[in-house]
Design goal:
408 residues; alpha+beta; Serine Threonine Protein Phosphatase 5, Tetratricopeptide repeat; four-stranded mixed sheet; 12% strand; TPR_rpt
């Protein structure tokens, strides 16, 4: 049974009513205020203040403030006149019950309307952010395409100019060769004429084409290609070359495992069938704070290729932001299953997956399980000071010397 507050005070003007309700040591965050046009309630357990107003007020222009041990309600009168009393003078419990229920119903409708307005505003903001991101991506693609077209046009023009120059040089060389041939023939004809006059018999010799007039064929050759060997810094007795090679083979197979032949994926653009492109796109949405869009992009990428651990790990990070903690656990565990064998090439990825799964466990208040993941991450990256601090905090929570909030 709540304790009714009777030591309140109120003042008024022609247009406003000011009500002061003492909070009796209650904290501000524990005070619940319900205000409508005909009913006021201030509840801070175990105390309760109720007022069935004498005249209706304008609830939309009224306000309430809590601080310094008192709740102050500023009510705007609908009719400018002085009240003789703050509340109605009646002991009719049924009438008060009817007014209270009607007021609470109005208050619930008001809260629902505000919630819908807030949700619509958030959806509009998300839509605007998505449209802006798509516009930026379209502009970037157009810019790249324009650069490619300009480069292609420039290369084509240079090729055509080079071909024209080559044709002109060939024509000039043919003309010069023809002139030399005519001059030589004329000279030989004159020489033959002089020899006939002097009584000498000269045998006409058909001029032969000189070797220098025809370019020599190009010489053949071989180009030796040498690949740099992949060097592992681990000592031979501790070598994990086989595991490294297995990890690289699995990654190569994962990228070759594209099978976008599902009916609903046939209409996608070429770049939207590339999981790596989709991963980068999801990362941009995540960086912009649009976690729901990032999840949708990662979902499509995973449908195209379920063997890339980064997709599951990044989707787990989005689910953490959206408070989908069980989904974050599933995606982190799937990423860790794919990050095998444990080698240096995937150490950073395994660290992130352990931390994300450990964070999900802790937010579900499963601190023992979360501590195991943080210890596993710390074993991979033992010099990470942030990991050391978080691991110690979880130990303190388990021992009861510290509490973790949801934001931690």
């Amino acid at each position: 049974m709540p304790l009714l507050v009777s030591d309140h005070s109120w003042t008024q003007t022609d247009s406003t009513v000011h009500i002061h309700v003492p909070l009796k040591g209650a904290r501000a965050e524990r005070v619940d205020i319900v205000s409508t046009d005909e009913y006021i309630k201030v509840h801070y357990p175990p105390y309760l203040f109720e007022a069935f107003l004498l005249e209706p007020v304008d609830d939309d222009r009224s306000s309430a403030k809590v601080g310094n041990g008192v709740a102050i309600l500023n009510l705007m009168k609908r009719n400018k006149k002085v009240w003789n009393h703050l509340t109605i003078n009646t002991d009719d419990k049924d009438l008060k019950k009817e007014i209270r229920e009607r007021a609470l119903l109005k208050y619930q409708e008001k809260l629902s309307s505000e919630s819908r307005s807030k949700k619509e505003k958030q959806q509009a903001e998300k839509k605007y952010a998505l449209e802006t991101m798509m516009k930026l991506e379209e502009e970037a693609r157009d810019s790249v395409q324009k650069t490619k077209d300009a480069e292609r046009a420039r290369t084509t023009a240079e090729l055509e100019a080079w071909q024209l120059r080559q044709r002109r040089e060939a024509e000039d060389e043919d003309e010069l060769r023809l002139q030399r041939h005519d001059l030589k023939a004329l000279t030989e004809k004159k020489e033959a004429g002089r020899n006939v006059k002097s009584g000498q018999i000269v045998k006409a010799v058909k001029p032969q084409k000189r070797r220098g007039d025809v370019p020599a064929p190009r010489r053949t050759g071989n180009i030796q290609v040498v690949f740099t060997p992949r060097v592992f810094p681990t000592a031979l007795r501790e070598s994990r070359v086989e595991e490294e090679e297995e990890w690289l083979r699995k990654q190569a197979e994962a990228r070759r495992a594209l099978n976008p032949d599902v009916d609903e994926l046939q209409d996608l653009k070429e770049e939207d069938r590339n999981p790596d492109f989709l991963k980068d796109k999801g990362d941009k949405y995540f960086a912009a704070g649009d976690f729901l869009s990032a999840v949708n992009v990662y979902n499509l990428a995973i449908r195209l290729n379920r063997q890339l651990p980064a997709l599951f790990s990044n989707r787990a990070a989005c689910h953490l932001k959206l408070r989908n903690l069980h989904k974050a656990l599933e995606d982190s565990s799937k990423a860790l299953d794919l990050l095998t064998p444990p080698v240096a090439a995937n150490a950073a990825a395994r660290t992130r997956a352990h931390v994300r799964r450990g964070s999900a466990f802790c937010q579900l208040q499963l601190y023992a399980e979360g501590l195991q993941d943080y210890q596993a991450a710390l074993k991979i990256d033992p010099h990470n000071e942030a990991l050391q601090d978080d691991t110690q905090r979880i130990r303190d929570v388990i021992q009861g010397t510290e509490t973790l909030s949801d934001s931690d």
